[in-house]
Amino acid sequence: MPAMDLPRHKSESKQALEAHLDLATVIKVSQAVSGEMVLEKLIDRLMRAAIEQAGAERGLLIVPRGDDLRIEAEATTSGEDVTVHLPDGPHTAVALPEMLVRHVMRTQETVILDDASSQNPYSADPYIAQRRARSILCLALVKQGKLISALYLENHLTLRAFTPDRVTVLKVLASQAAISLENSQLYRDLEDREGKIRRLVDANILGIFIWNVEGAIVEANEAFLRMVQYSREDLLSDRLRWTDLRPDEWRERGERALAELKATGAAQPFEREFFRKDGTRVPALMGGALFQEGGNEGVAFVLDLSEQKRAEEKIREQESELRQIVDLVPQVVAVFGPGGERLYANRIGLDYAGLSLEEWRQAPGNAFSSPSFFHTDDRERAARTFYESARPGGSAFELELRLRKRDGTYRWFLARYNPLSDKQGQITRWYVAFTDIEDRKQAEDRLRGENFALREEIDKASMFEEIVGVSPALQTVLSRISKVAPSDSTVLITGETGTGKELVARAIHRRSDRSSRAFVSVNCTAVPRDLIASELFGHEKGAFTGATQQRLGRFELANGGTLFLDEVGELPAETQIALLRVLQEHEFERVGGTHPIRADVRMIAATNRDLQAAISAGSFRSDLFYRLHVFPIEIPPLRERKEDIPLLVEYFIDRYARKAGKHITTVEKKTLQVLQSYLWPGNIRELQNVIERSVIVCETENFSVDESWLSQRPVKKSAGSQLYLSEKVAAQEKEIIEAALRECHGRVFGPSGAAAKLGIARSTLESKIRSLKIDKKRFQA
Question: Fewer Cβ close by (within 10 Å): the C or N end of the chain?
């Protein structure tokens, strides 16, 4: 076992062990630390002797300080030289062999690790693992059972470096060192006390005079003569009494002190004044005692307080000036006690709170627990941060919180807490500066909203970057966009799914005066019905289960910009009412909120539903429809823009070929004919998907499309009537939808539903099922 207590070899007898010891060495070691009373020299001798006798390369003298450990000295070797360093400050447990030293101090056992790199009870000590010493020795310095310190030694080169002979010598050294260390400390304490008295006398800062009860001054030292500016002859003459040096207003206090002195033999020090020879006064602290009980003579000790009084006055002046400066600082400044007790606040802070200093001090709670000043949502976090930092040795910290204003509103502040600690590391004061960051927080919220909108805009990229086409139907749409974009009018965009309604909404936003602000898009079918109100208007903390913090809605995120509501026909009735209020009154309330919020937002809505039919069915409010239907734009389906298909095909091929790193130069004539004759029920979105898929599988420079990918056979427009074409389209759509429902067992939505299979929105499919009068229940398993 690498770690063991001495003796290491139980079979080795005491006589055999002593036979190996050099008596001269033991005497030398014992004398090395005996008789030395200067603590620093004693520690130096002890560490040098320990390093030399143990054959160690490094050593630590560690003393307990309450629950902590302190490195009193560190010794290292370089060749034959030993260097001893006495650290100035305390060392933390991280810098010590914590586990090993505490075990030795607790048990007062000697522990040897002959091979510290092997598994041992102290292998988990990070210090030992980091040092990688080969041999380690730790022993306690004990005097009459009292632990004085611990000696830790390590050798990085040799296994079993600490032989029994060396350990025995070190034990002798430790025993003598424990005695010398305690004696040295006692000597130092005594020397410190004597030194203080000696310095006090030598410095002549204390005036002393001997007096008698008749009022005569028998003797005085130079300090007292200088203090009252009398010569010795004048002061000791029969003409002058010590009572003559006392102003009349101090007579009563002096007589009480004299009575106390006669009764008890000593008088407690008290402040008073003496007359100087020129009639001026000197403030002093005076005490005295009789030489013997009931005697007539005594001694008085007088300390000149002139400098102290001047310093106090200067401090008061500086304090007053500093308070004036602090009162003018454009920040809330406060001083708290170690436990958060309110001590001082500057004028700016008191005006902000609407309180006097005394009212502020007497407010309930401490620095963080009072509901009178701190926002409910910030109180727990602020208190936790404060108490974590309020431990001894705590450091400065800062946090953001909201402070209550005199009118009941709250503003954001950056609070910087700086502790003042005494010599023992105990915090005595907290100095705090609160900087108003309300404007910054609002700017951050706006920026966060704009960033959110921008990320959403990137994530929900439109079907293509530009509106592509030359057909008359598309040119009509572009003309209407250019006319309505500069205004703030509400726009209602209608059209089948996949026609590019969101793209048109973005085009209106980019050409409007709001183009520099956010464009926020909401798909009303993608948000659960019970959460759509929170999504649009936001919610307050605790408004409903799961609302753990305040959340901004899309209206606030779009403030100053444009809000696009896609599939607006799917909004539940209660949300339609709230949306109508925004359109009418330009304000709303968060869910769970009580304060109205102004909405500077341009509204653009879109739907693929027949809203007039929805109004007749009672699922959509007519008043909301007319509020939205200010400027309608109908997007034509792709089958009515046949002439745009070649341009769109070329655009998409270029886009996806560059992304795939392919070079496609031509399009098969047959492919182009197929694409133009196809009716595109999924419109441009379906065309985009087909082109992307075809580019992926294309292995030549000639582009082609697999006709089987198209969801229905192309139908050429005959010379017959448009009614016949519409009927054919409807019949084909019904056939396609029923086939999808049959494969999906009547399921409409979800990953395995018919809507996903056809690549169209659930709402679009539901609308077509209703319009084509398809019974989806007959396909259910």
Answer: C
